[in-house]
Design a protein that fits this description.
The protein folds into 2 domains: 127 residues, Medium-chain alcohol dehydrogenases, catalytic domain (Quinone Oxidoreductase, Chain A, domain 1), CATH 3.90.180.10; 59 residues. The protein is globular. With 198 residues, the protein is an alpha+beta fold. It has a 5-stranded antiparallel β-sheet with strand order 6-3-4-5-7, with no helix packed on it. The model has no long low-confidence stretch (mean pLDDT 94). The longest helix is centred in the last third of the chain and has 14 residues.
């Protein structure tokens, strides 16, 4: 298959690499889209030991498997589903597994990526391929933050809410706030174009 190799010193090449091994409890995902994240610039500058790319959307391509053909986004923190953190829903803080797809194991800047079954997030058919990766960092991170804050200040008890920054995550936070019932949302950003979008 082909994959992007991040050499460092602002150099990336597309190279033929072996197909990845698929471990127990994993499936092979044919990558449709991987969003470019600002954190990837670090790998562009410094290089990456593994194939980069952590905002991944694709289709399970494992004939005979019950998930074959399913459209999925990829949740990048590997997790055990058994420890206390996983049991309370904090899978990003798993006490047993510390690995991130696209950081310290192969990621989505390749044609295929092996993904643990518990890291697959089904994507409804009414969400187009180009938007699907945004469900991860842009909307997923934002929604998680707003749900977390909701435990402290519910929409009913909230006054005006200020979102500092109208980058992708800030815009996601503004969307999540509105969707979860926060009505008086304000956004600040020195970038006039981003502020207009907000």
């Amino acid at each position: 298959m082909q994959a992007a190799v991040f050499h460092g010193n602002d150099r990336i090449t597309i190279e033929r690499v072996p197909m990845p091994d698929v471990g127990k409890g994993e499936v092979l995902v044919r990558v449709s889209r991987t969003a470019l994240c600002g954190s990837d610039f670090k790998l562009w500058h410094k290089g990456a030991e593994f194939t980069a790319g952590h905002e991944i959307f694709g289709v399970v391509e494992q004939r005979g498997h019950r998930l074959h053909g399913r459209r999925c986004a990829v949740y990048i923190p590997l997790h055990c589903d058994r420890c206390a953190a996983c049991q309370r829903g904090d899978t990003q803080m798993c006490l047993e597994v510390s690995s991130l797809i696209g950081w310290n194991r192969p990621g989505g800047y390749a044609e295929y990526v092996p993904v643990p079954e518990n890291c697959l997030l089904p994507v409804p058919n009414d969400i187009e391929d180009s938007l699907a990766p945004l469900l991860l960092d842009t909307i997923g991170t934002s929604g998680h933050a707003v749900r977390f804050v909701g435990r402290v200040v519910s929409p009913a008890d909230a006054g005006p809410v200020l979102v500092m920054g109208a980058g992708p995550v800030g815009l996601g936070v503004a969307l999540a706030l509105r969707a979860l019932g926060y009505d008086d949302v304000h956004v600040a950003d020195p970038n006039v174009a981003r502020l207009r979008i907000a």
